[in-house]
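User: Could you go from structure to sequence for me? I need the amino acid at each position, not a summary. Structure tokens:
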């Protein structure tokens, strides 16, 4: 392709709306244009990148026995009502009505659709295992679309669903997808880590997120410096702490603490470490008010709390609700004598001896609070945030924190959807059994953005060669020099014949403009045809990532370029 024939509108200024690097560079380099908040048009350069990512995804899915199909984007409300998710999914679900006033939604995911398909077509254990996938647009009405393709309302996604006879066979399918995802992101040239995660609205018993490591990532992950352990910060957990039996419990005592509300203030008032304070947080769920107890130096992990309670929603209670539940203003709640609401304590709280906690009345705290003696929680569970610097549960190494961009996630759904929607099969004995399912998603458009977040410099994008829109650009220094233009055209033809995807910048622009655009767009190789090409028979080949420049003979260029690309 010649640049004069392409739609590739580059920009010199950084658009004001773009907060992260990938959004800025996708706009500046002419890859995308905004239609509405969270909705973008993909221009030709972006389409080439997306198609390459999709090809890699298809090859790895097919390698594991996946079969591609295509499911509808418009989904009837009945199937979401049947699964129980129509009222649960929340405002992110795009809902619409047809002319007959029937309810539909734009698919944010396809568990219901694929389960009903399999329910109607699979009868026997002999038809499984089954791996079905598609690549299509998805729709989620994000409250705050941001970061360009990182969090949009319309995006491209691959989702595969596995159907097995039992949990053991699901484990096999899950491992196949874990391997396939590892291959996909490795082939895309990304640095990533699979991490333990929460299954969220999708549900299921086990899940891993595939995180591209980047400072701009929305998700925080914890990983061990000595072993392979890694988890989303919402999922990371540690073993329960043991009680210090060497410290005798002292007598409970109420103390006046005027104006001391925060855990840090209370700890300073009593001359203790913040870890000796019991922080009592009052939450409202879709079912009830609950008190969550963690150490003063910890934060409540609301995802863990939601899962422990089996709730659909959880959020901090209002000041009025706190007052009604505890009899005290915010900052003075505590577990001693708290009778009106359910109480959930973190394991660490149960290991405290002679702690300090709110007295459920204004300007007062208890000291020498001891669990089991002074209060008994309704439930003891891991409900705290794990922090960097703590010890790894697997090997005792130190946990470190990094930012990550979620580009893929794999779930063990079990029978969550098959039981609800009646997807069953007849086993070897003719007995009806629920199909065991898995779900596996890759954000295709997000992967393109994540690749830029991880591969860029001050001049623009640095594409991994496997997903670059073109492998090389040929730039004649002077468009007015007929000899340079003809040689550039010949080299362009030779490279394309050898399978090197090449673009010819034949614009009547100054060389500096062409060089800046080449760096901005991020072609792995820049081939400059200048005066030496005609006088000495050599051209300049510059590698975008390393900046290395080689002078290569014109008659060997095509083969040499192909060799260089194999090493990138």
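Assistant: Here is the amino acid at each position, in order:
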């Amino acid at each position: 392709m010649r640049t004069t024939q392409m739609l590739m509108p580059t920009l010199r200024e950084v658009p004001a709306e773009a907060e992260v690097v990938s959004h800025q560079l996708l706009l500046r380099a002419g890859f995308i244009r905004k239609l509405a908040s969270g909705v973008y048009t993909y221009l030709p350069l972006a389409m080439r990148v997306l198609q390459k990512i999709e090809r890699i995804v298809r090859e790895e899915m097919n390698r594991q026995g996946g079969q591609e199909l295509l499911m509808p984007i418009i989904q009837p409300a009945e199937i979401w009502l049947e699964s129980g998710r129509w009222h649960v999914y929340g405002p992110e679900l795009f809902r619409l009505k047809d002319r007959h006033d029937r309810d539909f939604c734009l698919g944010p995911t396809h568990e219901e659709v694929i389960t009903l398909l399999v329910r109607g077509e699979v009868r026997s254990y002999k038809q499984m295992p089954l791996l079905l996938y598609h690549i299509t647009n998805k729709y989620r009405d994000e409250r705050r679309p941001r970061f360009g393709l990182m969090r949009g309302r319309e995006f491209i996604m691959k989702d595969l669903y596995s159907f097995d006879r039992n949990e053991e066979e699901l484990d096999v399918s899950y491992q196949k997808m874990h391997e396939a995802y590892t291959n996909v992101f490795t082939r895309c040239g990304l640095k990533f880590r699979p991490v333990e995660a929460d299954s969220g609205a999708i549900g299921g018993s086990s899940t891993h997120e595939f995180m591209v490591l980047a400072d701009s990532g929305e998700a925080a992950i914890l990983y061990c410096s000595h072993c392979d352990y890694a988890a989303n910060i919402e999922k990371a957990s540690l073993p329960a702490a043991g009680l210090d039996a060497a410290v005798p419990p002292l007598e409970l005592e109420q103390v006046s603490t005027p104006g001391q509300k925060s855990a840090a203030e209370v700890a300073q008032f009593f001359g203790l470490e913040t870890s000796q304070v019991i922080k009592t947080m009052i939450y409202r769920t879709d079912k009830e008010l609950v008190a969550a107890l963690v150490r003063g130096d910890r934060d409540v992990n609301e995802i863990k709390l939601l899962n422990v309670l089996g709730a659909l929603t959880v959020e901090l209670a209002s000041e009025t609700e706190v007052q009604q539940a505890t009899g005290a203003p915010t900052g003075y709640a505590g577990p001693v004598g708290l009778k009106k609401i359910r109480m959930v304590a973190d394991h660490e709280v149960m290991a405290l001896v002679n702690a300090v906690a709110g007295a459920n009345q204004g300007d007062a705290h208890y000291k020498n609070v001891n669990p089991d003696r002074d209060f008994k929680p309704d439930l003891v569970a891991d409900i705290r945030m794990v922090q960097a610097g703590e010890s790894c549960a697997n090997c005792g190494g130190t946990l470190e924190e990094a930012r990550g961009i979620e580009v893929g996630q794999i779930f063990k759904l079990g029978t969550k959807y098959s039981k609800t929607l009646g997807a069953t099969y007849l086993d070897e004995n003719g007995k009806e059994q629920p199909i065991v399912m898995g779900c596996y998603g890759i954000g295709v458009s997000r992967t393109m953005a994540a690749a830029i977040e991880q591969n860029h410099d001050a001049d623009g994008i640095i594409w991994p060669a496997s997903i670059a829109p073109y492998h090389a650009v040929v730039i004649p220094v002077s468009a007015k020099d007929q000899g340079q233009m003809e040689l550039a055209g010949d080299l362009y033809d030779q490279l394309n014949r050898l399978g090197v995807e090449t673009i010819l910048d034949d614009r009547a622009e100054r060389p500096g403009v062409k060089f800046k655009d080449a760096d901005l767009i991020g072609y792995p190789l820049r081939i400059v045809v200048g005066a030496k090409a005609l006088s000495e028979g050599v051209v300049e080949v510059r590698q975008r990532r390393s900046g290395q420049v080689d002078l290569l003979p014109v008659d060997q260029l095509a083969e040499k370029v192909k060799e260089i690309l194999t090493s990138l």
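One structural detail worth keeping in mind: The first strand starts at residue 32 and ends at 36.
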